[in-house]
Structures are given as structure tokens and as C-alpha cells.
Amino acid sequence: MTDAALKGLLDRKAAEYNDERFIASDPVSVPHRFSKRQDIEIAAFFAATLAWGNRRAIIQSATAIMQAMDNAPHDFLLHHREEDLRRFLSIVHRTFQATDLLYFIHRLSLHYREEDSLESAFAVPGQPAASVREQLEHFHRWFFEPEHPERTRKHVSTPARGSACKRLNIFIRVIKEVSKTSLELPSQKC
User: Fold this and answer.
1) What is the dihedral of CA 145, 150, 153, 159, to 10 degrees?
2) Which residue range forms the structural domain that includes residue 152?
3) Cα–Cα nearest to 178, from 34, 18, 64
């Protein structure tokens, strides 16, 4: 393929995917529903975590989670009560079960009670110029610092186990696009 042909193909694909008609039928539509930075981050994290299977099922599952959070995920994480968690028991997406969802809610609640953004969860302490790989490995360690179900570890990738971290990279790209965050955009495979 010539350089001109490749450029033409990439330009056509960029136009196809950067179109509101595509966004409406893509999981990225879930974080696009929000304007508050924290809501965008939370919606994007869940949509990216669930991003396997067909797009319609991913959107349905991510939407169900957002609806269970009263379509105000940040507020829900900060102010929910124990009895509010019952509404999540019936939400399942493939192998992502209620046990996993409840841990995610717990971990994100702990974080947002102390921090304003998930961006800080990627920051490697003492290493302001950490590589993308180091940031993703740090995020994985950070996410599982509290006591957690062992089965839930499979839902957050890490380059330490040879993963390309596709869903975490999707998450970072989405929040960068939707909220114009300063998170460093990974430019290469982990």
C-alpha cells in the first residue's frame, strides 16, 4: 500500500469514527452523556472495563450501572449508603459479576473521597516522568491495594502480566477526548 493510499484509508476511518452517528452506537456514548469531569471518568472507566462483546451489550451494561448510580456516578460514589448497593446485585456483563462491580464501587468511592480525579491514580509517586508502562502498572497495584476478591483482578489489566492494557488505554483515550484532561495519552503498546 502506498503512503497516499494509507493516508486516504486512515482519513476515511477517522471521518467515520469521529462522527456523532458512530458515537451514538458506541460505548463511548456513555461518558459523552456527562459534563462533570468525575462523572465522565467514572462512566468511561466502566464502559472501557466492560468493552468486550458486542457494542450494544456493552452500552446496555454501562448504562445500567450509570442508572443504578442515579445517573450521577460521582455523587453516588461519595454519598451512597450500604442499602443502595443492593441495586447492583443483578447487573452482570459476561464474566463481570456483582462481586466485581461492588469492589469497583468500593475502590472508586475510597479514591474520590480523597482525590478529585482518577488522574492521580496513574501518577507514580516520586517519578513525574514515569513511562506509560510504569503508570499502568502503578494503576493496577493502586486499584487492588484494599482487600479485594481475587477473581476481580482479571478485570484490570497490567503490563506486568504481558497485557497490552487495551481497555485501560481506551479509558485514557476516552477521558482525554471527552473531558480534555491532561492525562498522558499512551502512544505505544505497554
Assistant:
1) 80
2) 3-179
3) 34
